[in-house]
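[Q] Does anyone have a clean structure-token version of this?
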Amino acid sequence: MSSKHAENSTSTADSESVEDLPLPPSPPGYPILGNTLQYASDPFEFHDSAVEEYGDVVRMDLVGGDIYLMAHPDFFERAMVTQQDAFEKTDDFEIAFGENLNAVEGEQWERQNEALQEFFYPGKIRAYAESMVDMIEARMELWEDGGEISLHGQMKDVALEILFGTIFDRPLDPEGDEELRWAANSLNEYFNPSSLVLPDWLPTPARHRFKKGKGRLNREARRLLAEREEEGGTGDDLLSTMVEVRNSDSELITETEMIDQVAGLTFAGHDTSGLSMAFAWHLLGNHPDVRERFYEELDDVLGGDRPTIDDIGDLTFTRKIMQETMRRHTPVHTVPRRAAKDIEAHGYRIPEGADMHLSIHRVHRDPRFWDDPLEFKPSRWDDMSTIDKRYAYIPFGEGPRSCIGERFAKLEQLLVLATIGQKYHLEPQSELDFAPEMTSQPSNPLPTTVHER
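[A] Here you go.
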């Protein structure tokens, strides 16, 4: 391990001492372009090699401006819990999500968070289980023994169907709603590496696709809200609740907030779940020993029956598969932040106003915190008392602004694996390589052959 990884104090020093600290080191780059080409061609590889060589804090010299790569649990604790004011959200959140829960701050966030919590209470989520299984089975009816599917596409589709059939109470046609499905994936385009490394004012194909897609997603959100208003808006789902609140007191929620909430949840509520489930199946397909233990648990616990909410507690190995999947291939690879003031970071200075990329991808693979970090070993989670890595394992974030849908996603993941795994073996036909955007997008659709067990 490089000596650059020395454990330094992470407390914020007084402003005078911080000003005296050096900037973090930067890998060699090209004239004018700096590290732009290296980063844009393979962000994950660049992150890994830069941290290995230069330590936990690295300055990436990009055409669009310096970005500070930060790869240690300390930084996540500070950004998410102890020093949130110093690690403020970037403008990217507002551009992508508008006035959605993911982007707003202060009183507006508190108000939105309180309003949305009721849809993610444990009791409410438990009640979704039967409907989730119904939608998983409806998706499986489109598959044929020996046929080929896009693993990534199918897992995104079922995640979107589950979201809409539960939180929104607006079931989707498994073979329809194509406009909505396309729009639901559009926000990723803004975080294409080519857009991140270039100046904000420079038009790029990815930025054009993002603008077009975001407009379409907002139109879909308006349409969904209008549909629910025409139906009376009297249910206990999210769409009905927002319509009812808006009609009773327009001061409690604005039309823009309603649209951005639906649009943001549509993206965030299916993209990461779809990715995590696709990655899990791909890993299972390439690790037959883990797959057989998984099948044994399903046979022992379920015996061929549909999984129910009462079975979830007994699917212990299935849960470990998902925990390890989200460590090995975390869907959210980076947490972007902006320095609200000069920040001390392991002996270096992050200048006020600088953009920071806190790398979950790197921390989840750091050998200081994980034995054999590149290996897929669900058994590492057998003894939870040895997993003392609160900020070294953060697939859902930490602190007061951790993912509001964490419980929902974990239930969904278990039910998808259990329902499909009882009937099918999924055999990957390609390698898993990445083309990261906002999330860890695979570079291909992950073609997969479906075999009945």
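[Q] Thanks! Anything notable?
[A] The CA atoms of residues 397 and 403 lie 6 Å apart.
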